[in-house]
Amino acid sequence: MEHPYFIVLLGLFLLSILMHHTESWDSPERALYSILFATLFLVAEKRRKVLFVVGILPLALSYVDRFPNLANHSNLSLFLIALLWPFTILHLRRDDSVRYQDLIKTLRLAAFVVYFFAAFHKCNSDFFNPSVSCANDKLKDYYELFPWFLSSYLSSIKALMPLVAFSVEVFVPLALAIPKLRSIGIILQVVVHCTLAPVGFVDFSALGLVFTWAYVEPSKLSSANAISNFRRLGLLLVILAAALGFFRWDPQRAVYGSLEGVVFSLVSLLFLVRVVLPALSLSPLAAPKGFIWRLSLVILVLFGASNYLGLRTAGTFSMFSNLRTEGEHTNHLLLPRNLFKVFSYQDDLIEVVSVDQRIQGIYRRMPYVGQLIPRIEFARVMQKVRARGISGAGMTVRYRSEMVTTSDVANDPRFEFSVPWWQLKLFKFRAVNIAGPQPCSW
């Protein structure tokens, strides 16, 4: 018999995939497929493991194909697929309590690692700068809803919000690690995700619910209660995602995205109260025994630390943290001099001096005057320029103290900045400002 803990775990993960592909409908094929996949999983009574193993493959391949151009939550989804897919195959015929415990221990530690780095990256001077802090940037939609009698306090609220956000983000991983505080930490974790869901992060919030589920104790679950409540949650979200998909062409589509986030938040809080909190585990965090499980956690830690190692600055857990690690000095308050930097990819920078407006913002808000763009990322930008056939676009850059100017960047061999394919496949970087604070960016 399929254990309700594992079935709900797989189902919540599929709902996070659904929320990702239906939040923007940038790929109608993947959106429709995820709706069909999630619906079949929800209505199925048996063979859900087989359905997951077969159905997740096309989505997994699409993630691998688009890597490294994936957002933070998509990289986490890829990590979870790498755990759940082979585990599900091994348990198609029989349940193994030891391996189940290893999976649960791995997921709990993975959740701790993710939320630890989310807080640690924000320990930088620019996150505490109210004018650029991501704490204020992500809440600006809420600020616009303030009634007149609160508007006069807005500047004070903005000054305080980075400290409040940082304190909450620090408390969550701390509470996950301390059983007596865990229920408070789980509640805060869900509240944070529910706050972010209506402003454009329903996909990441849905993935957060997967990590919340990791802290449920399987032996405390009521099978009928867990499955029935999960089905209600899932079917409501599937119907909502499918219905709102017809309105994505609308110029005011942000309204529908907010509605999706509001509904998700309400049903998530209900699911938290009715299913998660009554079955919450109060046991200490423990490491899994198997080598593969431990290796996966090591990989996750290295990925989270990739900014400091010099490997990546985008698509990591440092998204929306204002963190800057390029150069000899960082803005991190605990690591002003990055002693852990082993690789120099993010320090091989190209300065944009002037650029034709036709190619401004052509790729990930690059290139603009005043930006420093890592060479690997600059090569990716040039690929986009050539792919779109933009000719006659002028540009001037400074690279290793040498000024380089062209009147046709797409056809000038000096601007190829050829980079090995494996670097383009593995590494992803943000642009940074020459001077001034690091703005909030993905």
Write a concise synopsis of the structure shown:
With 442 residues, the chain is mainly alpha-helical.
Characterize the structure shown.
The protein has helices spanning 4-24, 28-43, 48-66, 72-90, 97-120, 134-137, 140-143, 148-151, 154-177, 182-196, 202-213, 223-245, 253-276, 291-304, 306-309, 375-387, 421-426; strands at residues 349-355, 371-374, 395-399, 402-406, 432-433. It has 442 residues and is mainly α. It has 2 domains: 4-299, no CATH class; 313-433, no CATH class. A 5-stranded antiparallel sheet has the order 4-3-1-2-5. The longest helix is centred in the first third of the chain and has 24 residues, at 97-120.
| Low-confidence segments | none
Count of helical segments? 17
**Succession of helices and strands:** HHHHHHHHHHHHHHHEEHEEHE
User: What percentage of amino acids are in beta strands?
Assistant: 5-15%
- Give the overall form: globular
Overall number of structural domains: 2
By secondary-structure content and strand pairing, the structural class works out as mainly alpha
Strand order of the largest sheet: 4-3-1-2-5
Helix content: 55-70%
Question: What are the salient characteristics of this protein?
Answer:
5% strand; five-stranded antiparallel beta sheet; 2 domains; 5 strands; mainly alpha; 442 residues
